[in-house]
Write a structure and sequence with these properties.
By secondary structure, the chain is mostly helical. It has four helices and no strands. Helix 2 runs parallel beside helix 4 and helix 3 runs antiparallel to helix 4. The longest helix has about 35 residues.
Amino acid sequence: MIISLLDRLHRIEAALAAKSYVLVTGLLLSGIIARELFSTTIWGSEKVAVFAAVFAAFLGLTLATAANSHLRPRFTDHWWPDAWQKKVSRGGDYFSAFLFFGIAVVTGIYVSDTFINEDRASVIYWPLWPIQLVIAYSFLSSGIRHLAFAIWPKIKPQAEILE
């Protein structure tokens, strides 16, 4: 059941990240076309494109976590005996979950403050908190995944090592 839930979550996050990048591309291209062909601008298009890119980037964190493909230093790989590797990996997942949950709390407080203060984006004057929610969400989602990997290590994907 947990595998099915995490898989569905991964698919939704991947689709949203892809749609965000399509939006970024469309906004930037339409801005260029408007400027070069019609000598005008599309009001707020660059600001919305930046927000969409940030949205996609933070969802990229969740996608990297789901695939177990974070960049990491490999020089410590042989510090532990082979018999300890699984325990060290599991401990790392517990630690990562704890870290991500902590960051999710801090970013949640930040988003809450933005909501309370009614902060708005410059140029487009949209409320910032809905845009910032992806930050707290990405850390929470990554924390949940690392916790699941620690509790059920068999569901953790094998990391691809690029030489």
